[in-house]
Amino acid sequence: MLYELIGIVRPGNLAEVKEIVLGAGQLILQHKGVIRGISNWGVFSLPKATSVHQMRHHHGHYFAMRFDSSVAAQQAVRNMLALDPRMIRHSSVKLGDGKLETISRVGPGVEWRR
């Protein structure tokens, strides 16, 4: 199935974001999944202040990842992100119903922002 993962990492260090994305990507590949695209959206203000892991956050570094994988791989990625103290929030959405004609209508991922 095709999934899109949107994550918010505590701001400050781009290396932390890269480590988290690399870890999630390796987990997907270990479960024989395919990564379709990764997008760095940059640092934005959160809609409202959020308390996670005993810290209060007002800003976050957003990223998006599109990937094909099994349900077990998707759940493993979500569990890994939930345990990471650098993550503020994450959400994954299933895109389409797994058929090629439906997936082809789903637009390309968001471009990297420099």
Explained architecture:
- The chain is α+β, with helices and mostly antiparallel strands.
- The protein has a single domain, classed as 2-Layer Sandwich (Alpha-Beta Plaits), CATH 3.30.70.60.
- It has three helices and four strands.
- The chain has helices at residues 14-30, 71-83, 100-105; strands at 2-9, 34-52, 55-68, 87-95.
- Strands 2-3-1-4 form a four-stranded antiparallel sheet, with helices on one face.
- A hairpin with a 2-residue loop joins strand 2 (34-52) and strand 3 (55-68).
- Helix 1 packs antiparallel against helix 2 (71-83).
Indicate the mean pLDDT: 86
What is the succession of H and E elements? EHEEHEH
What separation lies between the terminal Cα atoms? 30 Å
Contiguous low-pLDDT stretches (5 residues minimum) are: none
Largest sheet: 4 strands, antiparallel
Count every beta strand, where a strand is a DSSP E run of 2 or more residues.
4
The CATH architecture term is: 2-Layer Sandwich
- What percent of the residues sit in helical stretches (DSSP H or I)? 25-40%
Placed side by side, the strands forming the largest sheet appear as: 2-3-1-4
Instruction: Kindly name the structural category.
Output: alpha+beta
Summarize the structure.
32% of the residues lie in helices and 44% in strands. The chain has 114 residues and is α+β, with helices and mostly antiparallel strands.
Keywords, please?
single chain, 114 residues, alpha+beta, Alpha-Beta Plaits, four-stranded antiparallel β-sheet, 3 helices, 4 strands, 32% helix, globular
